[in-house]
Amino acid sequence: MTHHAITRPRRGLGLLEVLLGLFIAGLVVAAAVPLYDESAVRRGSNEMVLEMSLIQASLSRIYHDRTTYDGVNTQVLARSKLLPAKWSHDGATITNPFHGSVVVYPGSSDDGAKYYAVFNNIPVKACRYLSALDLGPNILRVEVDGSYITPDMTPGQKMSLCTDGMTNHFISWTVF
Question: Are 41 and 126 within 8 A, CB to CB?
């Protein structure tokens, strides 16, 4: 009498198949994380450009009937309700997309500035992206971490002002 082995259908996955699936999933995640980081920096940087534009428009609206911006400060702008609520939660401070403070203060008649807008706590990648942008003719001067950007600087020279050693940079826009 011959005994034939009864074949049973396989249930579930084998160890090798599970490990292969985990390896492929790990590769997908490893590739997606840097892309997400870059995307988040670009999104935040674009929001900062929008925020600077809205600050300019809001202050022009508040001070439209005056010849100077005397008395302008962060609180005046925050209380104006002209900025989106996500940037000014308490009516006294303004935050940027990277959760740093935005400080606005009056300009100096010595340099022809109407006001200054300083954005703090900017990551290095966003600092490099923003420092290379031209934000239009109303910007008198841009300062990155204490160094002024000059008109003759190349984009590479502008971006080099945002050093890797610092994790939190600031950019100051002087508006005239």
Answer: yes
